[in-house]
Specification:
The complex is a heterodimer of chains A (470) and B (313).
Chain A (H helix, E strand, L loop, with lengths): L18 H8 L3 H18 L18 E8 L1 H25 L4 H4 L5 H5 L21 E10 L2 E8 L6 H14 L1 H6 L8 H11 L11 E4 L8 H11 L2 E3 L4 E4 L2 E6 L2 E5 L1 E4 L3 H4 L15 H6 L4 E3 L5 H4 L1 H4 L2 H9 L6 E2 L3 E2 L3 H9 L4 E5 L9 E2 L5 H13 L4 E5 L5 E6 L2 E10 L1 E4 L3 E3 L4 E5 L13 E8 L3
Parallel strand pairs in A: 1-21, 3-11, 4-5, 4-9, 9-10
Antiparallel strand pairs in A: 2-3, 2-18, 6-7, 7-8, 12-15, 13-14, 13-15, 16-17, 17-20, 18-19, 20-21
Helix pairs in contact in A: 3-14
Chain B lengths: L3 H33 L4 H11 L3 H5 L7 H10 L7 H14 L6 H17 L9 H22 L4 H24 L1 H4 L9 H13 L5 H5 L6 H9 L8 H19 L4 H14 L3 H7 L1 H22 L4
Classes of the chains: A alpha+beta (470), B mainly alpha (313).
């Protein structure tokens, strides 16, 4: 199976979005490009753009490898993508509002009731709670893969706390530093206003009682969290405080942060802490990362939490398979962006099929992320498949399966010149009184030849993503 | 408006940067004596360890006071929280925590110092390379100070960081003097002996003052002059008086910013006034050691009061 290459597809020759770049590339000295690649690594290390890998003692701070060949998307392709994404995030928010209120979609029998009730991501504490401005998921990273010229699919809706936006911004910054001449030749939509848009978006969903500019803060689990760089980066770029649970307390019905001049009220909290750790009085009692009592303040409407607690029910991998029904139910239209066919192993027929075709499928944990705990059938050994099969039989409802997709490829620069590698795309979406999508996103690339796993924790890298202003 | 935790991070960031640099200076002074006075070297290394507040931790690990052991313990032993490599790492961890409060250049200079010193101090140091290693440490901390002074806005962030610098520096200079206070006492039998001479020079060297001393005083080292220089001279950048001049000033700025007068400001101003109103002969009369011991205690108390006044914890 030959993958679709976004620059040089086998049958068609150089694709249009890459023409101008290719013209420039042809005139570059390969040695200079290799030198630029090293420059890029130095820039990243110097600025401390690192991420921590859990369970690795040695290199506790690592760089995500950066490839200097941009991934290029034409203006037309982007317009189609954004229509599909907008439709999707509208449906996600409508679904969340429904699930925590009237549950019409369950009454209509379009999504099975037990899928919600028995789901860990469903928070009964959120039933009947309407977040400020009615928005549940404010920041979404929709993972999109491409199979062919006109075939895009959504792989995952990251509706809880998607990360990676700082890489989108730093990748562009690095490219601007390394190749200023390229941006003079080729018109690329800017992405650098993302932090301003994020700030506007968060301000727009402030609690009802707040008049004037709200006080916004970013809540991080702390400097040892794998995404700490991003938390600090976003707080910095937005010009807001970066707080930890230990800085916050609830007083007089509000959440307040301890400052050098006493406690100061917070109106909007962009939290990068998982639901379970948010409030030890409501969720995990052993957590010190959150704020005791914040859920009471939230239910009283005195703080906006972005994303809202309980949004995980919308990006759960078991729910994912119902997204086409969900989109149609709430928007009245067919999905613009397709889903990947998904077998729910909780259903006996599907389980049987999956067990019989393990060698062809990708099997994922329903609640997993980061590429952990999954089986890539075609790449697995017979022994690995047999072991996985046992796990699957023991807890079928914990798994879903999808066909192994031939993700599109994009060239990366290797020591031997350009070579195709599989990529995916995560555009970032902001929802408040309107939907904002920055033209671009994070392109993740599997650096190992033939590999389909793009996760940074598993040897994936990133690329700058260009949306052409054409 | 600043988070209390951020103010705390800034304070300790600069304390540990200052400490990193002071470790290099202490060893530099010890090395100088070890090179010129082979018999007295181990005693000198012991006072280096005492000045660094690391004598008992060292004794738990090593038996010989050799240059190799002491330099290794004070520069590259991660189990010693004040070693240069541990201190720069703590400084960098604090900087990482407060990075949104730092200019990009300041953060990068700290991050680069950490990367570079970790590399330099990764393997045991060959004695021939020790001077080069000490230079590298002083250079990295100077680069940090350069970007800090050159790019940081003079606001509360700057003030809290500077409080850390001067509390640490005052503590360090006072310790150096206290460990050697007996060498400075006027004693008829010792005065003018060559033993005193190099001990005096070592004190000056450990605060990088052996050259500037001569600009202020006559060429000959005199214990009262040395003590006066390091305690009372408000222009000598590592003296107690200089440190307190700036501690009082930064606390005053913070008080003005916040429209409040904090207990910490009272303490710093009182100490500074006392240093200004004192002559060195009074200090010698009441007892140099007693004076220094009280000072070190009060200096610690100031640090605690700052933490309390500004919601560090």
């Amino acid at each position: 199976m030959v993958a679709f290459d976004e620059m040089l597809p086998a049958e068609a020759g150089l694709r249009r979005p890459y023409e101008a770049y290719d013209g420039w590339l042809k005139n570059q000295d390969p040695a200079r490009l290799t030198e630029k690649m090293r420059d890029a690594e130095r820039v990243f290390r110097k600025t401390g753009i690192t991420f921590a890998v859990y369970g690795e003692q040695e290199a506790s701070e690592r760089l995500i490898p950066f490839d200097i060949v941009p991934r290029i998307i034409s203006g037309n392709e982007w317009r189609r993508l954004t229509q599909g994404i907008e439709q999707r995030v509208q449906a996600l928010n409508a679904f969340l509002d429904d699930i925590y209120h009237r549950q019409e979609i369950l009454r209509a029998g379009r999504v099975p009731r037990e899928l919600i009730a028995a789901n860990e991501a469903f928070l009964p504490e959120m039933i009947g709670v309407r977040p400020p401005a009615g928005v549940y998921t404010h920041i979404i990273g929709v993972d999109i893969v491409r199979i062919a010229e006109n075939e895009f699919y959504v792989l995952e809706d990251n509706a809880r706390t998607p990360s990676g936006v700082s890489y989108m911004l730093e990748n562009r910054e690095t490219m601007l530093q390394l190749f200023p001449e390229l941006f003079q030749r080729i018109k690329v939509h800017p992405v650098e206003n993302y932090p301003q848009l994020l700030r506007q978006s968060l301000a727009a969903v402030r609690p009802n009682g707040v008049s004037g500019a709200p006080t916004i803060a970013v809540l991080t689990p702390g400097s040892f969290n794998s995404a700490y760089f991003e938390h600090a980066f976003l707080a910095d770029q937005m010009g807001v405080q970066l707080v930890e649970g230990q800085d916050l307390r609830v007083a007089d019905g509000h959440v307040a942060m301890r400052t050098t001049e006493g406690y100061k009220r917070i109106d909007v909290l962009y939290r990068r802490v998982d639901d379970a750790y948010l409030d030890p009085l409501t969720f995990r009692p052993d957590s010190s990362l959150g704020v005791p009592g914040i859920m009471d303040v939230y239910r009283a409407g005195n703080i906006t939490i972005a994303n809202a607690p309980g949004t995980g029910i919308a990006d759960d991998k078991a729910i994912y398979s119902y997204m086409p029904e969900i989109i149609e139910f709430y928007t009245g239209r067919k999905p613009i962006l397709g889903n990947i066919p998904t077998w729910r192993c909780s259903e006996p027929d599907s389980l049987k099929y999956v067990q019989e075709h393990l060698g062809e499928l990708v099997v994922k944990e329903v609640h997993g992320s980061g590429g952990y705990g999954m089986l890539v059938g075609p790449a697995a050994s017979k022994k690995e498949r047999e072991e996985f099969s046992k796990k699957l039989a023991a807890r079928p409802s914990n798994y879903i399966a999808q066909p192994t997709l031939s993700l599109s490829t994009c060239p990366i620069l290797t020591e031997k010149g350009l070579a195709p590698r599989h990529v995916d795309l995560r555009p970032f979406v902001l929802v408040s009184d309107r939907i904002r999508i920055v033209p671009g996103g994070l392109t993740r690339v599997a650096l190992k030849e033939g590999s389909l796993v793009v996760n940074s924790s598993q040897g994936g890298g990133t690329k700058d993503t260009w949306v052409l202003d054409d | 408006m600043l988070l209390g935790r951020t103010a705390n991070g800034l304070y300790w960031m600069n304390r540990y940067i200052e400490r990193t640099e002071n470790m290099a200076r202490l060893i530099d002074a010890g090395l100088r004596i070890a090179l010129t006075r082979s018999q007295d070297a181990s005693e000198e290394w012991n006072s280096v360890l005492l000045s660094a507040g690391a004598a008992s931790a060292f004794a738990a690990k090593h038996s010989d006071h050799t240059a190799e052991n002491v330099a290794d313990f004070l520069l590259r032993d991660m189990s010693n929280p004040s070693s240069a490599v541990a201190a720069i790492e703590t400084a960098r961890n604090n900087a990482r925590m407060v990075r949104t409060a730092l200019t990009r250049e300041t953060w990068e200079s700290i991050n680069e110092a950490w990367m570079s010193l970790k590399r330099v101090l990764a393997s045991p140091i060959d004695q021939r390379e020790l001077p080069g290693v000490l230079d590298a440490i002083k250079r990295e901390t100077a680069l940090i100070r350069g970007s800090f002074y050159g790019t940081m806005l003079r606001n509360e962030i700057f003030d809290f960081a500077q409080l850390g610098t001067y509390v640490e520096r005052a503590d360090n200079t006072a310790r150096i003097l206290d460990v050697k206070y007996y060498v400075l006492l006027p004693s008829i039998s010792w005065v003018g002996s060559s033993l005193d001479n190099y001990q005096w020079e070592s004190i000056l060297r450990s605060v990088a003052a052996h050259r500037s001393y001569r600009w202020v005083y006559e060429a000959e080292y005199k214990p009262t002059n040395i003590a006066e220089y390091l305690i009372l001279n408000a222009r000598m950048p590592r003296s107690l008086s200089f440190s307190y001049r700036f501690l009082a000033e930064h606390l005053k700025f913070l008080g003005e910013d916040y429209g409040a007068r904090h207990p910490a400001q009272e303490i710093a101003e009182r100490t500074y006034a006392r240093l200004r109103g004192t002559e060195i002969k009074d200090i010698f009369e009441t007892g140099l050691h007693e004076f220094l011991a009280d000072f070190i205690k009060d200096n610690n108390r100031l640090g605690d009061q700052v933490a309390q006044d500004f919601g560090f914890y």
